[in-house]
UniProtKB/TrEMBL annotation:
This is NADH dehydrogenase [ubiquinone] 1 alpha subcomplex subunit 9, mitochondrial. Residues 57-272 form the NAD-dependent epimerase/dehydratase domain. Belongs to the complex I NDUFA9 subunit family. Complex I is composed of 45 different subunits. This a component of the hydrophobic protein fraction. Interacts with BLOC1S1. Interacts with SLC2A4. Interacts with CLOCK. Interacts with RAB5IF. Pfam families: Epimerase. It comes from Oryctes borbonicus. InterPro entries: ComplexI_NDUFA9_subunit (IPR051207), Epimerase_deHydtase (IPR001509), NAD(P)-bd_dom_sf (IPR036291). GO terms for molecular function: protein-containing complex binding. The lineage of its organism: Eukaryota, Metazoa, Ecdysozoa, Arthropoda, Hexapoda. GO terms for cellular component: mitochondrion. PANTHER family: NADH DEHYDROGENASE [UBIQUINONE] 1 ALPHA SUBCOMPLEX SUBUNIT 9, MITOCHONDRIAL, NADH-UBIQUINONE OXIDOREDUCTASE 39 KDA SUBUNIT-RELATED.
Amino acid sequence: MAAVIFNRAPILKKQTGIIGIAFVRVHNYSTEDKAYNLSQLKRGTGGRSSFSGIVATVFGASGFVGRYVCNRLGKIGSQIIVPYRGDPFDVRYLKVAGDLGQVLFTHFNLKDEESIEKAMKYSNVVINLIGRDYETKQYKFNDVHVAGAARLAKIAKRVGVERFIHFSALNASHDLKPVILKKPSGFYRSKIEGEEAVLKEFPAATIFRPADIYGQEDRFLRYYSQSWRRQFGAIPLWKRGMATIKQPVYVGDVAAAVIAALKDPDSAGKIYQAVGPKKYYLHDIVDYLFKVMRKADPKRGYAIYDMRLDPIFQLKVTLTNLVSPSFPIANLHWDKVEIEYTSDYVERGVPTLEDLGIKVSALENHAPWQLKPFTYGLYHGHAADEPYPQPPPPKAIA
Ligand SMILES: NC(=O)c1ccc[n+]([C@@H]2O[C@H](COP(=O)([O-])OP(=O)(O)OC[C@H]3O[C@@H](n4cnc5c(N)ncnc54)[C@H](OP(=O)(O)O)[C@@H]3O)[C@@H](O)[C@H]2O)c1
């Protein structure tokens, strides 16, 4: 006879032959600590309906990068906790990122520790994608990128989260010189302070420093495609964009790198620079984008000119800031303009996405598809299946 005793529910079961006692512990998930190792619960073939061993709370999941990260997490069979603010219907579309019942939502406030703890209590991974390009009345850069990030890291440490992934920004540095404003970008300053604050609370955090990220609903390709950014068909760029070097990165590569970092324990405590494979002058990127959108026709006023010669454009930025400070039209505001003309600087010796095994793709591989909705006369003069000639890729400088 063997007695199998479940704690809290003793069951006697008769068997012939051997006599043994087995003690099976039943976890009560609402009260037990996460003392077990989730990675040991891995099961399945690695697809959407298996379990990767990852239970990830993704702060900032409702943002641009968040959508891609959630999709990648769901694709390998992870449970995803989406903390949201505002209306739950705004994030409901993320439900299909994972398998049935694997994407869960919880309301939170970045200043409320209790709601943050609730969101990450049962997770072994926390990803912080919270960020803001401009300050609002309620949240200054410091509140979001420094105090908020540090709060998340501190609570993650307290509740026993194993991996903390934090998103900073390329060029974030204390020594940054201003390009067009009197002082350097507040975004970059708060991002470097945020990195330090996170590492103080969670020294094994993995930090990503992305350059401009492009993809569906980004703020790079779409920024230039907005009519508000143009001046009657022409586009003003600081020193015609010939003094700024950019190395944009594709969002799919960034999301893949997050998953690669989670799978690689050696990435804990490291900083990764997320940049694309090629460097370009901003002038060449913008010119290429306009050619892709078939809007580079001088007959219709297209030209790239020096922003310094156009006080009206400068007034436009100032007025946009005044009229709509908490939601700048077309993302046009002075801090963004300062960031726009800050050249991307890739630090030697700091790993990049390639060190996580990611084969980063070039701008010209994605831009035509991403810009299709903005392409002029897309459905005129061409049969639906007739390919239209693409312009040559922008000239890379390295
Ligand atoms: N996209 C880029 O080109 C780029 C470049 C460099 C660095 N980064 C950094 O990478 C991260 C992800 O970028 P992203 O493009 O996905 O950003 P995003 O589209 O602007 O999304 C930002 C996310 O942060 C949340 N958020 C902002 N302020 C918040 C607050 N006060 N309380 C709670 N949540 C708040 C937003 O929530 P709501 O939806 O509720 O507003 C949203 O989910 C950010 O840290 C960003 O700074 C991005």
